[in-house]
Specification:
The complex is a heterodimer of chains A (130) and B (98). Chain A has 130 residues and is α/β, with parallel strands linked by helices. Chain A is built from five helices and five strands. In chain A, strands 4-3-2-1-5 form a five-stranded parallel beta sheet, sandwiched between helices. In chain A, helix 1 packs parallel to helix 2. The two termini of chain A are 26 Å apart. Chain B has 98 residues and is α/β, with parallel strands linked by helices. Chain B is 27% helix and 20% strand. Chain B is built from four helices and five strands, in the order E-H-E-H-E-H-E-H-E. Chain B has a five-stranded parallel beta sheet. The two termini of chain B are 21 Å apart. The chains are: A alpha/beta (130), B alpha/beta (98).
Chain lengths: 130, 98
Amino acid sequence: MKFTIQVNEGPYQHQASDSAYQFTKSALEKGHEIFRVFFYHDGVNNGTRLTTPPQDDRNVVRRWSELGEQYKLDLVICVAAAQRRGIVDDGEAKRNGKDATNIAPGFRISGLGQLVEGAIQAERLVVFGD
Amino acid sequence: MSMLHLVNKSPYERNSLDTCVGYVKAGDTLLLIEDGVYAAMSGSKAAAKLSGLDVAVLGPDLAARGIGEDRLIDGVTVVDYAGFVDLATDKDKVQSWL
């Protein structure tokens, strides 16, 4: 079955990103397809490569990147939410005159239309938030 | 049209469980995750509201909070993440009561 996953919260304030990751991993291991993971609101903070959690702590961002690479996941960050919170890729840096980027490997920045398309294309939309 | 209802907050913190149970129909399942698992403890303030409903609880979130399965309301099913995925596919829709 085809799923789209929506993550509304950042990596450390709430359990939402952990729950979403465990659900996504489990669905993939059972042979289901993840059409897209859409990071919205504070959820965009799951996509900065500049976080450095302690080595004995789970690395929430890297974990998403690695799962994304393993299963060729489409990890999409909402552009408007990202601009507000300073999540930047090359295109956004150029467009908004920023001197750096911080997007994590495997993520891309795009619009809310990607969430709508994800909800239409997938058979189930599962939302994780506060 | 069956639905999987997800509640992720403790009944002592939010009223999302109250809102949710008003919409649960026959054939639906209510899955308690994250702090929502506190509602599944026998004697909890939400226990009476869950009677007659098909209630499941996420085992890893129970364990993370030190709640043994012996402390759950009778009839509540414990599932792991694979069971969570199965519930999401078995039901026609998934609703998160955030």
